[in-house]
Amino acid sequence: MKIRPANFADIPAITRIYGHAVKTGTASFELEPPDEAEMKTRMENLLNGKFPYLAAEIDGKVAGYAYAGLYRTRPAYRHTVENSVYVAPELHKRGIGKVLLDALIDASAARGFRQMIAVIGDSNQAASIALHKACGFEMVGPLKNVGWKFGRWLDTVLMQRALGEGANAPPKADR
Predict the structure, then answer these.
(1) How far is CA 98 from CA 21, 34, 39, 107, 134, in A?
(2) Any idea of the CA torsion for 85, 88, 94, 95, to the nearest 10 degrees?
(3) Burial code of 121-131, b = ≥16 C-beta within 10 A, e = fewer?
(4) How far apart are CA 6 and CA 130, in angstroms?
(5) Residue 86: its pLDDT value, please?
(6) From the CB of residue 160, how many other CB atoms can be counted at a distance below 10 Å?
(7) What SS3 class is residue 155?
(8) How many CB atoms lie within 10 A of CB 108?
């Protein structure tokens, strides 16, 4: 497996992976999968903002992807990112998510971000919660019944980990 920066040629695979997650799971609270044009726009916005966007490649094919983006848009949050990790459904439970998340943590810290937040859709997402724990995230807590999908109320689970020096020192450069 090779972890590399994602690029626009990856958009069809990324769209397929994400579309499956939207249609069949609760990792995303979107109700309709976005098309390739929208996924390209989202990637452009993240790359233009100097956020990391990574792809896992196996045998020349995208097996998963991960990116970090602003946790919230107000200026005081500018040193905190939220992560997203998605793996092709046929490749779940092979360690791809962990390799991607570890690389994303490193890339985000290298860019000077200080905190990473995981907003995990559905408190029943045991695999995602375990993945984040294995990568050093701590449980912050659930937000109860904040999403409605598949005919039921869903929680989100917040987890957090420090990046680099975390909160032990002021940021080296202002973003």
Answers:
(1) 17, 25, 23, 14, 8
(2) -20
(3) bbbebeebbeb
(4) 25
(5) 98
(6) 17
(7) strand
(8) 22
Residue 174 has pLDDT above 90, yes or no: no
- The single-letter code of the amino acid at 151 is G
**Tokens at 118, concatenated:** 């995981």
Alpha helices per DSSP H over 65-173? 96-110, 126-134
For tokens 């992560």, name the residue.
83
Q: Residue 132 to residues 73, 83, 129: CA-CA distances in angstroms? A: 23, 10, 5
Query: What is the bridge-based pairing of β-strands 80-87 and 115-121?
Result: parallel
Query: Which token pair is 128?
Result: 């995602």
pLDDT per residue as tens digits for the range 25-83: 999 999 999 999 999 999 999 999 999 999 999 999 999 999 999 999 999 999 999 99
- Residue 115: count other Cβ atoms within 10 Å of its Cβ: 18
Cα(117)–Cα(131) distance, rounded to whole angstroms? Answer: 13
Q: Which two tokens stand for residue 110?
A: 């290298």
Mean pLDDT calculated for residue range 118-126: 93
Tokens describing residue 90: 């046929």
